[in-house]
Amino acid sequence: MTASSPEVLLPESREEAVQAFGDGSGVTVVAGGTIVLPELSYGRLRPGRALLLTRSGLAGIARNGSTTTIGAMTPVSELADLPAPLGPAAARVADVEIRAQATVGGNLCAVADEAPRGELQAALLALGATVRSAGSGGERDEPLEAFLDGQRDRLLLEVSFDEPAGGAFEQLRRAHTHAYATLSVAASRATDGTVRIAATGVGPYGRRLASAEARADDPTAAGEAALGDVTLTDDALASAWYRRRTLPVLVQRVLTRLEEVA
Amino acid sequence: MNLTVNGLAREVESAPLTPLLTVLREELGVLSPKAGCLQGGCGACTVLVDGEPRRSCLLPLAALDGSDVTTAEGLGTAAALSPLQQSFHRHYAAQCGFCTSGMLLAAHAYVERDGSDEREAIQEALAGHVCRCTGYTKIIDAVQAVARGEIEGGQPWTLETGEGIDVEIPGSPA
């Protein structure tokens, strides 16, 4: 690169990664690199310190009873066979090479740019997932929803969720135009009957659709209600106008599908 | 930093966050991986890293110390083409050639893992590769022929007249 080459940290364990991250100030985290490397190549990002998680050992999927825990460095491709909504969401991310390189942690930390990013956010929000992160004040667990709404200054370590009674995922893509999806909607029914619905492509990052959840017994009404949960904007893939017309349809479809499976 | 590129041990000195694509093209002079979009969307920079197809524009060098990298130059030689190279040639699957290296490596990984000869499966395997000449039909024909075991490779690259020619390929171990 240039004279101001950044310091590069390459931790060999989870503990080393947490220590190297510290309170996160001045650190750019590189997981799979599918989002960060273009930023570097185009000169939009000039990190002082880069933390590469390649060898940090933060990858893997573990099951403990009904709880599934996924390490932040797990490639998206390894989630493709998990039940809905997460499996189908992962299977449809970009293409075969990107899925093998992109990570769960990177996807959860992604924010929209010229297109929506982070399709797994919708699925994991719908699963009521919890994330464990490190940073200022040590390690902590919090709902994914709070993590996404937060300061985004922490190192994501893992995400976990309880297996649902059922789930569904619907997506709107523009074929052959872009690796990212225009709109993704996920729903799940927990074993206690609670229905959660969330979307990606309706703002800078994934959102719970609380008003739609309140009308989950009526898919058409829920679809209309979802519009009250979001502030839609234009981007390179679709206008706010188009999203206002397609979001209710995807919510309706995902709830209809959920009724069929659980 | 050490890489094995097309079977040769190479010591590289690029800065740690340099994308593998830049290391290959600008430090090592291996020119088959193409710099297309530089954001993972076009597939033209695809190489094999430890046998798996990867976008070289998205991989920082620091993450690759000790890795084994294969580019189109490492698949075959002008004197003895790989099955896919021979099939691409026979099926007229290369037009301008910009996407060809990436297509070849993704297809190589696909047939190596015993990918089926169904066109839909081949399309899925090549979904991340854009051909702006829109030569997809012949590319899929070429991959399908190899997946069916119809082309064994090993033939020299020839002109239509059948004349063998010497081609010097930068970065090739040959």
Verbal overview:
- The complex is a heterodimer of chains A (262) and B (174).
- With 262 residues, chain A is of the alpha+beta class.
- Among the domains of chain A are: 1-53, 2-Layer Sandwich (Uridine Diphospho-n-acetylenolpyruvylglucosamine Reductase, domain 2); 166-261, 2-Layer Sandwich (Enolase-like, domain 1).
- Helices cover 31% and strands 23% of the residues of chain A.
- In chain A, α9 packs antiparallel against α10.
- The longest helix of chain A is centred in the last third of the chain and has 22 residues, at 240-261.
- Chain B is an alpha+beta fold and 174 residues long.
- Chain B has a five-stranded mixed β-sheet with strand order 2-1-5-3-4, with helices on one face.
- The radius of gyration of chain B is 16 Å and the shape is globular.
- The mean pLDDT of chain B is 92.
- The A-B interface holds A 1, 5-6, 8, 10, 30, 32-34, 37-38, 40-42, 47, 50, 52, 54, 94-98, 100-101, 178-179 and B 15-19, 38-41, 43, 46, 52-55, 57-60, 62-63, 106, 124-125, 127-128.
Low-confidence stretches of chain B: none
Question: How many individual domains of chain B?
Answer: 2
Total number of β-strand segments of chain A? Answer: 12
Quickly give the CATH architecture of the domain at 166-261 in chain A.
2-Layer Sandwich
Task: Briefly characterize the structure.
Chain A is α+β, with helices and mostly antiparallel strands and 262 residues long.
